[in-house]
Amino acid sequence: MYLRENHLSRHNNPFPEILDDTVYIRILKDPNYWISQDLEDKIIQIIAQSLDISGILYHLGTESLITNAYDLLPLDDSRIDLEEMIQRLPILIGRLTRAVYLNVKPVADHKVLFIFKYLPEYQEKWYDAVFFQGMLNGLAVLFELKTFTIRMTKTRLFGIHVSHKELGEDILFGADSNEYELEWLEDKMFLSRSRLTKDDVSNRHRVMVTSRSDSHLEEISIVDVKDVVRRSRELAIENRDLEAAVEVLKSFKQELEKKQLSMAKDLRLAKNIQKGLIPEIIPDWNGIQFWTGFTPMQEVSGDYYDYFPYNMDKLGVAVCDVSGHGVPAAFITALSKLLFSNYKKPKPSEIFKLINRELLDLVKQQGYTTCVYVLIHDDYKVLYSIAGHPRPILFRAKTNKAEICEGDGTFLGMFPDAGETFLDFQIQLEPGDKMFLYTDGLTEAENDKGDAFGETKLIQIIESCFDKSIQETVENILSIHKEFTMGTDPMDDITLLGLQLSPRLPEFKTIKSKGDAAYQNKQFSEAVTFYEKAHQILPRDLDTQLLYGKALAYSRNFDKAIELLESYNKFKTNHFKSHSVLGYCYYQIELFEKAELEWKKAHSISDANLSNLCNLAQVYAKLNEKKKMKDVIQKMKSIEKSYLHILPLEKKWESLPDE
């Protein structure tokens, strides 16, 4: 096989480094020629580098059994069955090798264990395991077994070169012996020796007589060993063709895996993009606190939520559920963010009408979204509208009762006349009141008995959290929901958005006003004290957080200021002052690279601010970045040549060593 596959001549020894020409010729001509195990191992190792020989070795094992079985038959022409042939098999192993002997152990009717024991001075090889299993397959071929299993159960090897599944499942490696298990259904085939041949009595082929008992009849036939070997080889060739087909399938599988990896990469990219579209947290606004739970079913989600500031007097909040899942749904969520950001109307129903028309034009009815949109006014009046979405749940702090809000409407992006169904509804929030917006993935999720979570259970949990903050309430709902659906696969994306008008709002306003007064008078240490208390009441109120961070910086508490300002910047407010003060804090603790980064961000927001450019020039002086410092000074001159800090900066620039 090796010679044929590599187009080599039989007359030229391809292994001159391990055997001489005489030995090579004898190996080719004499199948009974014995070679050492060491030489055998060297030859096989070389051949195995260019060929997958496990299948060949398996069929060689099968042929070895078939061609040698004749000598195991009784000399008196009496017949034997498979079980007796199995008991004679150790004789054959002893004739074929001096390195290993075989014990046969019946464990049940038609079930036998073959235990191969190696002499201490010999080391078994992976190809031995394949060859011996092929021999056991030869028994099945010889006795024409229709239903049987052959599997390796244990081996002294610590791993096998070929696929373990070819030899059997659950192989015990590193065992004290090499064992195989053969199990078959009841058979009625017998073999005996014959001196006849099928065709010519003078032809001294090895011929066996087979007899099969069926009821009261006995079928007798003559089998030539050469015919059996020929059929076995034909089967081997068919198996090789099958293996070639399997290799083609493997290549297809590899191509598919490459495409899957590419798709997975694209999905991760889409996930990261969507992560930037959906806010991780929503800041407190005018005394209203928010908390969210968001669980995508796949890499990317069809659920979407966001908030939209309307100057200082209103805040819009939307929760959407796009039809379908995966990338198409995520595409529509990206469109939704764009559309909701563009359309800020005084009534949610008007926003829905405009977005419905835009989605019809863009998506062509190939997808739609449900939505609930809440518009919160600074006097805590709430207008909301529903587009085919689960209705909000309102919890009243005065009564400790929760109820489903009224409202209805159809999907966005599906029907041209949907605008007629969009209506506005109004409620008034009081201190302590909570409102919950969610997608149907929350309430329609089922437990392992097929029961849905449902709105009734959701309301009961909300009412049981009457004394908890909005964060604690949302997290408690999601914890109970997770426990309820334990052991089931998620059926949909899940989004839960809760908001609460803080019951401590009057206290917050009083404390913050005192902090503002101290800050205006540049009493920064006193301002820090008041802002810290206000921050504890509404920890995500952005105005308080920024003033608190600035007061800490001017009080020279740089580490705490950095913590507050970094948290503030996560809300992506693009506030010039937050980056400018954060750069100042990093500069003071001599983290100049980070100071440079923050001041560059501040410059990108306000590129004409001279004090920020002056700061950048100072940090480049610290970093000995002479060219960058010169460029900043030139920018300052282009804005205002007479700026008083330019001359001292130029002198400092001249004193820097050349780069």
From TrEMBL:
Top-level lineage group: Bacteria
Q: Which residues form the PPM-type phosphatase domain?
A: 291-501
Query: Do you know which InterPro entries this protein is assigned to?
Result: Bact_Sigma-Reg, PPM-type-like_dom_sf, PPM-type_phosphatase-like_dom, TPR-like_helical_dom_sf, TPR_rpt
Alphabetically sorted, this entry's keywords are:
Hydrolase, TPR repeat
Molecular functions per Gene Ontology: phosphatase activity
Spans of repeat TPR: 508-541
List, alphabetically, the PROSITE patterns matched. Answer: PPM_2, TPR
Q: State the name under which the record lists this protein.
A: Serine/threonine protein phosphatase
Native organism is Leptospira kanakyensis
Classification lineage: Bacteria, Pseudomonadati, Spirochaetota, Spirochaetia, Leptospirales
